[in-house]
Amino acid sequence: MIRLAEQFRRSLAISEKNIKIYYSKGPVIVFGLLFPLFLALAYIVGRSISLREVLPGLMGMTTFFTATSVGPSIIPWETRSKTLERLLCCPVALWAIILGDVLSSFLFGLLISIIPITFALILNVGLLNFVVLLFGMIIASMCFSALSVLLSAYPPTDIPATSMMLSSLVKFPLVFISGVFVPIEQLPSWGQYVASLSPLTYFTDLARQLISGRSFYPMAINFVMMSVFAAIFIFAAIRIHERTLIKRLT
Amino acid sequence: MDGAIEAINLTKYYGKILAVDNISFEVERGEVFGFLGPNGAGKTTAIRLLTGQMKPSSGSAIVAGFDMTREPIKAKRLIGVVPEVSNLYDELSAWDNLIFAAQLYGVPRGARGMRAKELLEFIGLYDRREDRVGNLSKGMRRRLTIAAALIHEPSILFLDEPTSGLDVESARAIRGLIRELNGRGTTVFLTTHYIEEADHLCDRIAIIDRGRIVAKDKPEGLKSRVEGRTAFDISFGPRGGPVDGLAALDHVKEVSKLGEVFRVYVGDVTGFLQALADFARGNGLEITSINTVKPSLEDAFVRITGLSPEVMRVEKEPARRGDVGYSSH
Ligand SMILES: Nc1ncnc2c1ncn2[C@@H]1O[C@H](COP(=O)(O)OP(=O)(O)O)[C@@H](O)[C@H]1O
Ligand SMILES: [Mg+2]
């Protein structure tokens, strides 16, 4: 137990270092701030639907893009600057390093997602709904940031831009199949099946339920699925990074 | 357990490449132990195995009393590692880099600042503590990397090519630091491809070539392996006949000309000196000086590995212009 707490403190130190170094990097600003902002504008502007209709998709998109903006590039960056070697020499378990990276990506997502969630307050969704939404957003951010760190595991590149680009190849299709633009219940049945494979689906569905009262899945399913995806992503990230690590030491 | 480091049949394959081939050795506490070998010999891989950055394909490493494969975290607490390429965070200040290292090594919060200050003073960079590491010179970064490896007061320090690619002054400063640390009781394991550096710094040397340890001894011990091949540096005065006949004298094995000086490798010393005296008298030559040449570690290295000393002067990355490597002359 003491040892776990000690490793966890080191994860926090790694996370704090990531915040100092990587939040201000160009690609993070572009993919994590500018990009979701423009996408959100493109989504809202010129459409005559109410904020209540738009907000769930908007929240899903923002949380997804911001929480996945830091994660894909940290380990490639550390590989490039050889600082990964420094971390591997320290008495820190690989899982604690990965967790530190997930945490810093998570916090970035959470920080920016405060903007859309304040709109929920404006819409007067009720205190209970708001708290549940916030809780859902925390689990979702954790899940998405774990996915983003997982996406940097393979290929073991040392070029952050490559990793960013490859992770975008996964991220974009996910947004289109997750009920962000079209609610899941309006999709054909094959579309609903595909949607069920994306973790983002469950967060958008939850947000829609809490903001506009319509949903496809029961709330419990949404929470369970997000947690299951988060656990799988973290576990897979640790496992795959473990395997590809040696290729990063040249 | 007495030893600081024990390697038992360590072996590492990268795919099909055999980088470290069944090496075994022990390092005592308080020793400076060096791996000397050319580029690609497997030095960095060996350090990575010993410091738990990667797992061996087979064999094991016991470091500071812990099996590196089974209890890496415990072993890593007690060692410091200075890699081949300085690996600090360029974006952070010198100070923040040390504090981050202190956090990762579990230095108690209250002691971190003190340790960082002491170390910055030790390496002479306290004035530069607020500078971003990216703005420091290569030599300063290397010293700071050493400081970061010492933040938790490890009993064993590993250094991979600590002076490689540095200018002469910086390299000297680093060697001074290493000696001082060892004087305070730190066990040092280092790798180098500079023969002279190994000779001056190490209590014991293992010569490594193509992943294997081909010799392991004190520098003097290695040199004594090439004795029996005594050499003389001989100069002659301006008068007298040609000295071409030197190579043909009894007991002479080899002659090379270094400027005006002839270096003569001989077998039997007494026999040679008699033959030399007769030769000089017979040709009207005046011997102006004669010196015994002690075998250098380089001679020993060449003899043991069969490699040319030039191989050892090949730097991994082309040094920056103006950079001078360790000169062995
Ligand atoms: N990550 C790696 N993947 C594949 N081969 C490697 C890797 N690292 C080193 N090698 C190979 O292993 C051998 C030993 O390399 P290395 O340990 O770096 O030697 P040295 O440090 O003595 O120069 C070399 O042939 C090198 O090309
Ligand atoms: Mg090397």
Topology:
The complex is a heterodimer of chains A (250) and B (329).
Chain A: H1 2-22, H2 26-44, H3 51-67, H4 71-80, H5 83-89, H6 94-122, H7 127-151, H8 160-176, H9 189-195, H10 199-212, H11 219-244
Helix pairs in contact in A: 1-6, 2-3, 3-6, 3-7, 3-10, 4-7, 4-8, 6-7, 6-11, 7-10, 7-11, 10-11
Chain B: E1 5-14, E2 17-27, E3 32-36, H1 43-50, E4 58-63, E5 66-67, H2 72-77, E6 79-82, H3 94-104, H4 109-122, H5 138-149, E7 156-160, H6 168-183, E8 187-192, H7 195-201, E9 204-209, E10 212-217, H8 219-224, E11 231-236, E12 252-258, E13 261-266, H9 269-283, E14 287-293, H10 297-305, H11 309-313
Helix pairs in contact in B: 3-4, 3-5
The complex binds adenosine-5'-diphosphate and magnesium ion.
Residues 14, 17, 19, 37, 39-45 of chain B line the site of adenosine-5'-diphosphate.
Structure description:
The complex is a heterodimer of chains A (250) and B (329). Chain A has eleven helices and no strands. Chain A has helices at residues 2-22, 26-44, 51-67, 71-80, 83-89, 94-122, 127-151, 160-176, 189-195, 199-212, 219-244. Chain A is globular and about 55 Å long. In chain B, strands 6-7-8-3-9-10 form a six-stranded mixed sheet, sandwiched between helices. The A-B interface holds A 3, 6, 9-10, 13-14, 17, 20-21, 81-83, 85-93, 245-246, 249 and B 14, 48, 51-54, 72-74, 76-77, 81, 83, 85-92, 96, 100-101, 103-106, 148-149. Bound molecules: adenosine-5'-diphosphate and magnesium ion. Residues 43-44, 84, 160-161 of chain B line the site of magnesium ion. Adenosine-5'-diphosphate binds at residues 14, 17, 19, 37, 39-45 of chain B.
